[in-house]
Amino acid sequence: MLGPVILAASRSDAMRRFISAAPGTKQVVDRFIAGETVDQVITVVEDAAGKGLEVTLDVVGEDITTPEQAAAARDAYLELVGRLKGLGLGARAEMSVKLSMFGQSLEGGHELALANVRPVVEAAAEIGTTVTLDAEDHTTLDSMFAIHTELRKDFPQTGCVIQSYLFRTEADARRLAAEGSRVRLVKGAYKEPASVAYQNKPEIDKAYVRVLKTLMLGDGYPMIGSHDPRLIAIGQELARQAGRKLDEYEFQMLYGIRSDEHVRLAAEGHRMRVYTAYGTDWYGYFMRRLAEKPANLLFFGRSVLTKG
After folding, report:
1. Can you give the pLDDT at residue 294?
2. Rounded to two decimals, what is the model's pTM?
3. CA distances, 234 to each of 54, 182, 243 (Å)
4. What is the distance, to the nearest Å, from the Cα of residue 256 to the centroid of all Cα atoms in its chain?
5. Contacts with 284 (C-beta within 8 Å, 6 or more apart), sequence order
6. Nearest residue to 180 (alpha-carbon basis) of 208, 207, 148, 210
7. Annotated active-site positions, please?
8. Fewer Cβ atoms within 10 Å of its own Cβ: the N or the C terminal residue of the chain?
């Protein structure tokens, strides 16, 4: 039951200050965050490419309170695209964006987020890559899906994320499993009420399998976002049953988690993409990683104690 508590703490300014000041925090943050600068993350992209891996890059930061901050977030992604272009890494790296970072929660936020994300999607297309819209809490999803639909009119390769713990997701999957679509399926990492989401792991896992089957049998491109060995094996079997070739779906895992498995899947011929976050505003992302897996929290606790 620690997960909901940690997710609540991810919204607390007091807890942010405490965690940021803890002596062992940097050691653990470095496990999940690839760096604070573009230069640092480019090194990670190059290393991944050398191992046969692909990446999706996330400039962390969600607490946007002004249009100027949203514009700065847009510019950070445009800087990233420029660096990828200069190094010829477009084919290896796509980008993941949270529309909250582009101003979605501000007044007129839907239009503002669309206006800010469009130039990033355009720039990505120019270097041969694409953008995936991350899913956030359930109150933001209608706006996210509407922006996704709008972007796909000009950039049909634009992807989106769906979360198995939400009741609505099975219907979303049926709608999205169309030709040309790119859909990442994850379990979900936000604190959601029982009125909209499953609350226990067995139900979430069963929903994950149902949704993944829908995606595999559809005409789109499924992206399996999971570190769970059982779900990975089920994903492989569902792909086989659907007659999919190895390049007709992919696995995605987080930077710093099960790294050996990244390499193993790639060596077997699977497309393996590593979700790689970087930047200075790491707190919300970091706390969700702790909430997802108790072992991460234990690792953090030991680090703080040994550094204190």
Report:
1. 54
2. 0.86
3. 22, 19, 14
4. 14
5. 10, 60, 62, 63
6. 148
7. 134, 184
8. N
Q: Which of 76, 86, 56, 161 is nearest to 120 (CA)?
A: 76
Cβ-contact 162, 184 below 8 angstroms:
yes
Question: What letter represents residue 240's amino acid?
Answer: R
**256-277: per-residue pLDDT in tens?**
889 999 999 999 999 999 999 9
- CA 266 to CA 225: how far, in whole Å? 15
Q: pLDDT tens-digit profile of 104-133?
A: 999 999 999 999 999 999 999 999 999 999
Single-letter amino acid code for the residue at 252 = Q
Which of 197, 116, 182, 113 lies closest to 152 in space, CA to CA?
182
Q: Is the pLDDT of residue 96 over 60?
A: yes
Question: Residue 277 pairs with which residues in a beta bridge?
Answer: 33, 58
